[in-house]
Design goal:
alpha/beta; TIM Barrel; Rossmann fold; eight-stranded parallel barrel; binds pyridoxal-5'-phosphate
């Protein structure tokens, strides 16, 4: 859900609104409005961050004036609030994003919008008044059900703190954002920052999750929940009650962001891979999570959870690990905070990821082998759950992906969402383009993918592609292609899609990459898969290893074998030359060198 704050005027007030991080800010360039100001503070507008889109609102203005004001203030967006035609609206689209506003009353005929399809970027539905908006009055929102076109819309007109619950109930596929204006003012054009802050919190934390995120019961559509033994209930319930207030706290955010910046080395670069772009015929960007401290995206979540554990007063940390990357990340943050750390790891994984076992030991963690079942990630997860049941009071379990009982999937997704938050800003800075056509990532449990998708979920025009491990082939009996082979069921505390026998026993997964060798996916992925918001594909061991070699030799980046699955997917796609593609480079390949060496006989 996008937030636009409209009708700004005064320099200090503009800065205070910008500090809240709206997606759009609007300035009225219409002389009859009480929010009009003849001369805007140009220096303040220029200093706004690029990801806050500056919008100029016009009513029946001449093209000449509109163009000269776009030049003068470098507006990114124009909002046409009068009787402008579709052709007139379209004539600005090579320069700016175009919103066309309509005042709605009970007689409004949605047929008139058809002419504007493909001619404007967004509609804005306001309450019809003689004064072209800003009335503070609402219209009958049930009317939105009559709107059937594919152009996304903003809701305007009387949006206030009093009707947030009604807004939450608007379940329209094109409902894209809200416009906050006169009901958030202390005087015309002067915004009430504390009221806006409350609205932002509600919209960002309660309304955004409605569509693709978790609901208040911990579900994403049919998936999620907390299927846990009674003995774990107090631990999980404590987390559920506290996680949002802890991670939204200003002190927590400051500490989290400081560590991401100065300890992890964020923001991670968004790198334009030129040789790849040439080869695949599109603009291809790598989001370089491999450059993070400890070598993958896993550290983002580990830092978030250790800060949370500290605030919950926990004295001991447990974790499970597959590739060893999450174990290393957890051992690292425990060393950083001086907290005891026990990591469970499947025996087979311990053998194939020996360097990471040594790293964890060096960092002071105890590594406990899981020797049941396939002796891989799912068995390590079972052992960790057992430990948590035995030590409910003093121990926090740092789960390494967007799996497990609610609130873990949502909590981990929020910590990893920094990946897409940065990507959006970086892409805009580097290309002037707000949105890529494709966003791609590999999926084990799904945390790097969820972090990479998070801030693009609402941008329906962005195609999300999640790549699973096909192992030796989806039909080979040695695979981890969960969406292809799996069915709905319960795994590790949540209802999701998993590979299982007809009587519900978990099928042993297989992939050459330890991080993707998992029989399920997180519940949010199961939901995105089921409703078709993201596309799920799979790549074999051979295809991944070849892609790892190609990336090494064409871009000088040795990727983790997990990541190489996402890269291999490029071979199966065809692009238009102006497509922009962002791939999450989830981790570096140092840990996989032995596997690469054996395969290629170097
Ligand atoms: C752990 C890991 C993965 C898979 O985990 P997700 O939760 O699906 O992201 C992918 N890439 C790397 C480098 C990893 O370490």
């Amino acid at each position: 859900m996008k937030i636009k704050v409209c009708g700004l005027r005064d320099p200090e007030n503009i800065k205070a609104v910008a500090a809240l991080g709206p997606d759009y800010v609007g300035f009225i360039c219409y002389g009859l409005s009480p929010r009009y100001v003849a001369e805007l503070p140009g220096d303040v507008l220029k200093a706004l961050p690029a990801n806050i889109r500056k919008t100029a609102v016009f009513v029946n203005e001449s093209a000449e004036t509109i163009n000269s004001l776009i030049d003068k203030y470098a507006f990114d967006v124009i909002q046409l609030h009068g009787d402008e035609s579709a052709e007139f609206s379209n004539s600005f689209r090579n320069r700016v994003t175009v919103f066309k506003a309509f005042g709605l009353n009970d007689d409004f005929n949605f047929d008139q919008l058809t002419a504007y399809e493909n001619k404007v970027d967004y509609f804005l539905f306001d309450t019809k008044t003689a004064a072209y908006g800003g009335s503070g009055k609402t219209f009958n929102w049930d009317m939105l059900n009559n709107y059937k076109l594919a152009v996304p819309f903003f809701l305007s007109g009387g949006v206030s703190l009093d009707n947030m619950d009604e807004i939450k109930k608007i379940d329209h596929p094109q409902f894209y954002g809200v416009d906050l204006n006169s009901r958030f003012e202390t005087a015309p054009g002067v915004k009430d920052i504390s009221k806006l802050k409350q609205a932002f919190d509600i919209i960002r934390n309660k309304i955004l999750p409605m569509k693709y995120g978790v609901n208040e019961h911990g579900y994403y559509g049919d998936f999620g929940g907390a299927y846990i033994p009674e003995m774990l209930y107090p631990n999980v319930e404590e987390l559920r009650q506290q996680y949002l207030s802890i991670i939204n706290d200003a002190g927590f955010k400051a500490e989290f962001n400081d560590l991401l910046k100065n300890y992890v080395g964020r923001p991670s670069p968004l790198y334009h891979a030129k040789r790849y772009s040439e080869k695949y015929g599109a603009s291809i960007f790598f989001k370089r999570e491999d450059l993070n401290h400890t070598g993958s995206h896993k550290i983002n979540n580990a830092i978030g959870q250790i800060l949370l554990a500290k605030r919950l007063g926990k004295k001991r940390i447990i974790a499970e690990t597959g590739a060893g990357q999450h174990g290393v990340a957890t051992a690292t943050v425990c060393a950083l905070m001086g907290i005891e750390c026990v990591v469970y790891m499947g025996e087979i994984d311990m053998a194939r990821q020996a360097p990471n076992v040594s790293r964890m030991k060096m960092l002071g963690a105890t590594v406990k082998p899981a020797s049941s079942g396939s002796k891989t990630l799912k068995d390590a997860t079972n052992e960790a759950m057992r430990d948590w049941i035995a030590n409910p009071v003093d121990t926090h379990y740092i789960i390494g992906s967007v799996v497990g009982p609610y609130p873990y999937p949502d909590m981990v997704a929020r910590f990893q969402s920094v990946i897409s938050e940065e990507t959006k800003k970086q892409l805009l800075e580097q290309t002037g383009k707000e949105l890529p056509e494709y966003v791609m990532a590999c999926v084990g449990g799904g945390s790097n993918a969820m972090g990479m998708f998070y801030h693009f979920l609402d941008d329906e025009q962005v195609k999300l592609i999640a790549v699973e491990a096909a192992g030796k082939g989806v039909d080979s009996g040695h695979s981890a292609a969960t969406t292809f082979l799996g069915h709905e069921g319960v795994l590790h505390g949540s209802r999701t899609i998993l590979m299982q026998t007809p009587d519900g026993q978990v099928v042993e997964p297989y992939s050459i990459s330890a991080g993707l060798d998992y029989p399920g996916i997180g519940p949010q992925h199961a939901h995105l898969y089921k409703i078709n918001r993201a596309q799920y594909t799979s790549i074999t061991d051979d295809e991944a290893l070849q892609a790892g070699l190609l990336c090494s030799q064409m871009e000088g980046i040795i990727p983790a074998i997990e990541t190489a699955h996402a890269l291999a997917q490029l071979e199966k796609m065809t692009f238009k030359s102006d497509d922009t593609v962002v791939i999450c480079i989830s981790g570096r390949g140092d840990k996989d060198l032995d596997t690469y060496i054996k395969y290629f006989n170097f």
